[in-house]
Each structure stands twice: as C-alpha cells, then as structure tokens.
Amino acid sequence: MLVGLVSGLVSLLMLPLLVVGVLSTAVGGLGLVVFPRMVVAVRWWSEWHRGRAAALLGVSVAARPTGLPKGIGAQWRQAVRGPEARQDLRWLCRQVLTGIPAGLVALAGIGGALGTVAVTAVWWLFPEGEPLRLLGSVPVAGWGAALGLGAVQTAVAGAVAWWAVPRLARRHARSCLTALAPSMEAQLAERVGELTESRAGVLDAHGAELRRIERDLHDGTQARLVAIAMRLGVARETVPEESGALAKLLQEAHEGAEEAMTELREVIRTMYPPILTDRGLEGALTAVAAGAGIPAEVELGELGRLPAAVEAAAYFIVTESLTNAAKHSGATRVVVRLTRDEAGLLIEITDDGTGGADETRGTGLVGIRRRAAALDGTVRVTSPVGGPTAVVVELPCGS
Predict the structure, then answer these.
(1) Per-residue pLDDT band at 49 (split at 50, 70, 90)
(2) Do the Cβ atoms of 178 and 130 come closer than 8 Å?
(3) Residue 284 sits in the same domain as residue 388
(4) Which residue ranges traverse the bilayer (predicted)?
(5) Residues 6+ apart with CB under 8 A from 150
(6) Same domain (yes/no): 203, 346
(7) Hey, which residues does 339 pair with through a beta bridge?
(8) From residue 143, how far is each of 132, 134, 160 by CA, in Å?
C-alpha cells in the first residue's frame, strides 16, 4: 500500500501535465504530437497497475493495446475520443482519490509500530514534567513500563497493520481492475476479432473440403461412370438388335449411365467449378465474360489469396449477373470489377441496360443474395427504370 501512496502522488502529478499537453496545442500545434503520447504514457501507467492488481488477486487479464496508430489525426482522435483514453483518465482520478488515502492508512499502521519501538528506546530523554505516554495516556517512568507498554502498543499497531493493509490492498486492486475493465465496446470488438479469425479457419477448411470432394468425384466416381458407360456401349455393339428385351435393357442402361455422367458433371461444376482449379479466378471470369453473349469487361485489382469458398461464390455471382444482363437488361456493355480491401472481396457488376430489375420475377438476384448470405456477405442492387443497373456484392474473406 505504500506503493499506492507513491502511485497516487505520481498520478496527481500526471493530471496537470495532461492539461498542459492539451494547452500546448495552441503553441504551434505542439499538443497534436505531445498530448497523444502523454495519453499513451498514462496507458502504460494504468497497465502496470492493472498487472500488479491482477497478480495480487491471482487472476489473469488480457493486455490492452498501448501503441499509437499511424497519422497525427488518428493519434489525436484516439487520445481525445477513444473509450480507453477516457477510461484511463477516470482511473487516474480514482487513483489519486483512493491511492493516497489508502497509502496513508498503511503508512500510519506500519509507522505506528516502528515509531513505538523507536521512542520506547529513548523514553528517558523525555523531561520529567512531560514523560513519554504510551497506549494513549499511560506515562512511562522506567524501563519496565517502557518495555511492557511499548511491546503492547507495538503489538496492537502491528496487528492493525497486519489485518488492514492486505485488505486495503486487495480492495484497491479490485477497484483498479473494475475501473480498467474492458468496456462493452472493446469486448464486442474483441469478440468480432475472434469470430473473424474463426470464420477464416472455417472458410479455409470449407474450401479445402470442396476441392477434395470435387477431385474425388472427378477422378474417382466420374471415371468409373465413364468406364461403365464404355462397357455398356461395347455390350450394345456386341448384342444384335434381334435380341429384343436384352438389347433394350442395354440401351436403357447405357443412356442412364450417360445421363448420370451429365448430372455428375453439373454437380461438380456447381460445387467447385473445375475451371477455377485450372485457370484461377481471373482466368475463369475472363472465360465467362467471353462467352456471356454480351460485351463484357473484367477488371481485377490485387486480390491476393482468396479462400476457395469465396472464389467459388464470386465465380457463380459474376456468372449469374452476366446471364441476367444478357437475358433481361438489353445492355450493350457490362463491366465486372473485383477489388479487395480489409473488409473482404468487393464485386461490382454494372451494365448500361434499361434497369428496373425486379427480384420477384426470377432474375437470379435471389440466388446471388443466397450465395452471399451463406458467407455472411451483403448485396446491394441499384436498378432504376431506364438504367443503369449496378450489383455490388461484399464477401468477407476472414482476414
């Protein structure tokens, strides 16, 4: 608790320094640089106390960020408007109001015990008219009284200090942790970060599973169906048509195998298009645009590595949008633009058609929304009558 006394005094000194930091803004804008760094110093100071309080109470706390963002404007906004900066300021005031009194109480208890020992040893230096008095008002007239009364008073002061100081320290530590506990906003931000990391892992796992299933179906099941269809075709050629029922059964079996292969290819294509594996997203979209039946341009920014599920969703969204434009818009030109930022993948499809897109008429927009929603994405459609039509899709990439 003596540390609390020193801490309270230091905190008391920090308050006017913060005021000076704000006022220095008028001196050539010096405060724009100085004040945010003073706030960071307070953050370090509060984090040190928070760590001590957690160690005293035997609990663990997550460290809060103590750095500065890039840019003077961002630093100033964090220092002035940041919820953690306001939290640190409130803690600093509380530290002054509670740390100093608690430290004085501890100092009184410990000092009382040590002071009794010191004055008892020199009781004989006190004048006869004003002797040393222990236990409040009992005068000391000899070594026996000095040692006896001194021992009792030392024991009482020591017992009070032994009982009170740890309790005051724990109470002060709990007060510190309460004052510096993460705000609801910070907890939500932390939770969002955890969910974002979790979603990134899920997307990667989902993409790997899509690729595995597509590869197994393509290389295994489809290959076996092809072999069966070939054998049935050979059998049809071998068995004469005069065989009647047998020839008809072989024909039905052969045609059924070919239909099954067609359906399997469609399943593989809708699950994870093989063209994505062969050409990547850029090559796949270029091929889709070339065969869209309408002049289409594809503009891709720096996309980096995308999860397979996001690549597949982007491919199908662009494909469906180009199909919609070719069938319903009457457009003469479509522009597909893909960019990536911190939020994720941004897909923009615009055409110069007649507009008036209506999701209730089966234009494919419902399917686009469902694909985006499956990845927690968003879709915005702007299609006034007379055009143009713009479909903007945002797909989070988990990072």
Answers:
(1) confident
(2) no
(3) yes
(4) 12-35, 96-126, 146-165
(5) 116, 117, 119, 120, 134, 140
(6) no
(7) 346
(8) 12, 13, 25
Decide if 367 contacts 343 (C-beta within 8 A).
Answer: no
Shared domain for 9 and 119, answered yes or no, is yes
Q: Of the candidates 38, 164, 14, which has an alpha carbon nearest to the alpha carbon of residue 95?
A: 14
Residues 34 and 87 in one domain: yes
For residue 139, the enclosing domain spans: 2-179
Alpha-carbon distance of 376 to 196, in angstroms, equals: 11
What confidence tens digit (pLDDT) does each residue in 351-399 have? Answer: 988 887 777 666 578 888 888 888 888 999 888 888 788 999 998 876 5
Per-residue burial over 289-321, b if 16 or more Cβ lie within 10 Å, else e, is: beebebebebeeeebeebbbbbbbbbbbbbbbb
Helices (H), the chain: 2-23, 31-57, 72-81, 83-121, 143-179, 184-216, 222-238, 245-271, 274-290, 308-324, 365-374
* Greater pLDDT, 225 or 392: 392
Structure-block tokens of residue 356? 């008036």
Amino acid sitting at position 64 = R
pTM: 0.47
Q: Give the number of domains in the chain.
A: 3
CATH number of the domain where residue 342 is located: 3.30.565.10
* Shared domain check, 148 and 71: yes
**CB neighbour burial string for 178-202, b if at least 16 within 10 angstroms, e if fewer:** ebbebeeebeeeeeeeeeeeebeee
Question: What is the gyration radius of the CA atoms in the chain, in angstroms?
Answer: 39
Say if CB 329 and CB 298 are below 8 A apart: no
| Cα gap 91→73, rounded to integer Å | 25
Residue pair 302/340 in contact by the 8 Å Cβ criterion: yes
Of 214, 241, 271, which closes a domain?
271
Question: Residue 45 and residue 39: Cα distance in Å, rounded?
Answer: 10
Do 226 and 125 lie in a common domain? no
- Give pLDDT, residue 392: 92
Q: What 3-state class would DSSP assign to 391?
A: strand
Residue 242, beta-bridge partner list = none
- Statement to judge: residues 132 and 219 lie in one domain: no
The span from the CA of 102 to the CA of 124, in Å, is 34
Q: Are 375 and 313 in contact (CB under 8 A)?
A: yes
Residue position matching structure tokens 């220092």: 79
More reliable by pLDDT, 174 or 269: 174
Q: Which two tokens stand for residue 294?
A: 């309408």
Give the Cα separation of 269 and 271 in Å (integer): 6
Q: Is residue 31 located within the same domain as residue 167?
A: yes
